[in-house]
């Protein structure tokens, strides 16, 4: 079983402001580890709600690891940030006001990661798994490492964004989040066009936040193309990802578990070479008009 730890920039279990720095909760410590998996929840999640979602995902990952006779990368850290209010009903409608805490939390997380070191002062390898606005936290965190280049103190091995509440136009913009998105060695997006939260609430919230006019979310269709692998979880609604065994298989594949995942919908198998479909000349029917001789 993987070790499970907790990191937090919350001041309160529900609502509250962003703390001054990342706190390590419990006995599992990240310092001196070769590899870490960091799980990041979305908005409208209290600490207790996020913890339950994380636990569902970890159980599914452990099951996938057991079925493949392998071990999950360890330790796995749950990262809590204050993307909610104390009143659940209001929290569901508060998206425009959670972007600031997401960016602030990302700044604190990037500072924390820069202070980590692996065995013998080697770089720590990081795998990000996020949901909803947690994808924005991931990209904003990576944004702080864009200029580091070869001097980056950590290695970002993979990034999995589930139902990413990130505007497509920002993810694809070289002046905004695209350079950050390209940092991890492996990148994937799990998306669903059935996600009404992203189709309606996200677009309205982004418009109110003045980050675009009803912009499309990364988690709706997996756009922009070419930036990451796109996994279509057809029919999934916004809250279906963390407890999903299928989603866990996609995540596990990026966490180096030898698990099989289904091919993308409507994928056409690639052939090694084009088939020769021309017919021998003698078999091609002559459809020309008959030639008549003059009298």
Describe this structure in words.
This protein is α/β, with parallel strands linked by helices. The protein has a single domain, classed as Rossmann fold (3-Layer(aba) Sandwich), CATH 3.40.50.1820. 29% of the residues lie in helices and 18% in strands. It is built from nine helices and eight strands. It has helices spanning 47-67, 88-92, 99-114, 134-143, 168-171, 178-181, 196-208, 218-221, 245-254; strands spanning 4-10, 18-25, 35-40, 76-80, 124-131, 154-162, 186-191, 229-232. It has an eight-stranded mixed beta sheet, with helices on both faces. Strand 3, helix 1 and strand 4 form a beta-alpha-beta unit. Helix 1 (47-67) packs across helix 9 (245-254) and helix 3 crosses helix 4 (134-143). The chain is globular and about 50 Å long. The model is unreliable at 266-295 (pLDDT under 50).
> What is the SS-derived class?
alpha/beta
Beta-strand share of residues? 15-25%
Total number of domains? 1
Main pleated sheet: 8 strands, mixed
Strand order of the largest sheet: 2-1-4-3-5-6-7-8
End-to-end C-alpha gap = 96 Å
| CATH fold category name | Rossmann fold
Radius of gyration: 24 Å
Segments where pLDDT lies below 50 for 5+ residues?
Answer: 266-295
Task: Please provide the ordered H/E string of secondary-structure elements.
Answer: EEEHEHHEHEHHEHHEH
CATH class, please? Answer: Alpha Beta
The averaged pLDDT comes out at 87
Helix content: 25-40%
CATH homology superfamily name: Alpha/Beta hydrolase fold, catalytic domain
Annotated CATH architecture:
3-Layer(aba) Sandwich
Instruction: Compute the number of helices.
Output: 9
Question: How many β-strands, per DSSP?
Answer: 8
